[in-house]
Specification:
single chain; alpha/beta; 60s Ribosomal Protein L30, Chain: A; Alpha/beta knot; 2 domains; six-stranded parallel sheet; five-stranded mixed sheet; 11 helices
Amino acid sequence: MTGTAISSRDNPIFKRLKKLADSARARREARMTLLDGDHLLAAYLDAGGEPHTLVRAASFDAARFERLARLCPRVKAIELSDALFAELSPVATPTGMLAEAAWLNPPAIAATPLVVVLEDIQDPGNLGAMLRTGAAAGATLAVLSKGCHDPWSPKALRGGQGAQFVLPLVCGADIVEWLAGFAGESLALALGDDGSLYARTLTGPLALIVGNEGAGLSRAVRDAASAAVRIPMTGRIESLNAAAALAAAVFEAARQRAA
């Protein structure tokens, strides 16, 4: 199954895929996205998803593509010239294989809430990595503000490496409003005056809040949190980036819960 060959940008299938590659609005309206590479496709299949279309670049190994197609027998397969495929790829060096796939809605996780709250994370790679970190540490939910990058963009999906398929998401949230309804402790990761994160007990219902890569947390969100806490550092750097701060905090919570 090498796929139906498409050689024109005017082809309606290519136009549809191009919109999904480029437009958050198109992805949101269709509730579809593009998965880049066989690793991400495998994670999608493991989570119970079934792609709509598999796309191969002409130079992608046909036997390898055939093996992937056999994993999802109802899929439609197409082949694009390398030049057309590069227009869909989220990276400068394309993998050679994409899948058009519907968004997944992971089921609620039955555990003491450990929520990752993200305000205005702009970089898609950062966002994906933060979702991946949360999922790896056992987070039960991720809450994303209206100003966050689209978590279903191809670049964010590459960063997440399957996190979006297993971690329930609330997107476009009013963070202040969401925190007001959260029945647990909410900790803003900031250079705050409320002490060290490591001095706190993190085993109960917990939300960890991280702000924009440059501006940090807004004053309104910091004020809405139960406390603003810092991650102790002994080196000569004044702060961690957003993804590193989240990783330190969420795995400290995971460590305490495991103990």
